[in-house]
């Protein structure tokens, strides 16, 4: 309820998430709320840590201080990512949002390592943790606050598909776990004299480090070039096939230059005997409509397919029947026949699932096996094929 109130109160036209300014406002709001809340938590926990002589609480306090820096970096990331394209960066600066998330991840890990060292010192030189009701209640309150900020960032991150805000949500959730460990340390100190504080401080630090590692993996994926979202892939394919005279599509490639800044290319199968002017008009219309609907820049390559030649159709069916014995093969495309008389080449692309264990030598063997199987029934045919690996899995 509070999350929706803040979003509607501080973000004008908040439902128009495809609007660049609205999207930036989400990022600024998430960062600003994070700064205010984490400053309050840092101050509160630092005071509690000093009063109760707890290194675990103090470690947790400085973790909140690092979250303030993280929120500042998130705001800067959105600000810099919104810069328009220039000569050096023709597709804009959108990836800076991912880089800001990566910086936040490294800060989280750095804080974790720093407090492992502090916790070891506490184990070597222990001092008694004194349980006090008010500090304990304030720690529980901070857990509730972190649960809310995690949910708040998750809602906004999902709304605008921001890995930076979703990373902040994950970071806040890790704080919930670490603060819970601190609360447990305080509670157990009532009955146990053993210096648990340093050991729980190490546990808190390890949780922080793991959270940072997880965030690095998540923010690195779009920078390295992760596979596109399955819903986006299916949506583009379905929309493209809805246009007249486009009978198939394949080889979809999407490049991510930041949230809302994607460029894609796809091959569309069209009749080879159709007017090139007419099919070009259809392709132009498809490019524009799909680009507008899915907020990307799409380029469509035309693959002319012969649907009327009897020999081509018969040969394609014969080949498909032979390929049924190869379970690894998902489909074929770009099928055509080159040559005359008793020596003809069947040229086509074979689609197989992506498998890192399937090597180049395995590809060559697959090609040989297909040719052997083809020549048993049709000795005058020779298969010339290209192996396409399906990285998307649909």
Describe the structure.
It is built from 11 helices and 6 strands. The protein is of the alpha/beta class. It folds into 3 domains: 2-224, Up-down Bundle (Alpha-lytic protease prodomain-like); 230-305, Alpha-Beta Plaits; 310-390, Alpha-Beta Plaits, CATH 3.30.70.1350. Strands 1-2-3 form a 3-stranded mixed β-sheet, covered by helices on one side. The longest helix has 33 residues, at 20-52. The model has no long low-confidence stretch (mean pLDDT 84).
Primary descriptors:
single chain, 394 residues, alpha/beta, Alpha-Beta Plaits, 3 domains, 3-stranded mixed sheet, 62% helix, monoatomic cation transmembrane transporter activity
CA gyration radius, whole angstroms: 29 Å
**Structural domain tally:** 3
Write down the CATH topology of the largest domain.
Alpha-lytic protease prodomain-like
Please tally the helical runs, counting DSSP H or I stretches of 4 or more residues: 11
What would CATH call the homologous superfamily of the largest domain? Cation efflux protein transmembrane domain
- Quaternary state of this entry equals single chain
Following the backbone from N to C, one meets helices and strands in this order, namely HHHHHHHHEEHEHEEHE
The strands making up the biggest β-sheet line up spatially as 1-2-3
CA-based shape: elongated
CATH-level-2 architecture of the largest domain: Up-down Bundle
Uncertain segments of ≥5 residues (pLDDT<50)?
none
Q: Helical proportion? A: 55-70%
The whole-number mean of residue pLDDT values reads: 84
What is the strand tally?
6
Intertermini distance: 38 Å
- Structural class by helix and strand composition: alpha/beta
Strand content: 15-25%
Largest sheet: 3 strands, mixed
Broad CATH class of the largest domain: Mainly Alpha
GO cellular component, one term: membrane
Keywords: Membrane, Transmembrane, Transmembrane helix, Transport
Family: Belongs to the cation diffusion facilitator (CDF) transporter (TC 2.A.4) family.
GO molecular function: monoatomic cation transmembrane transporter activity
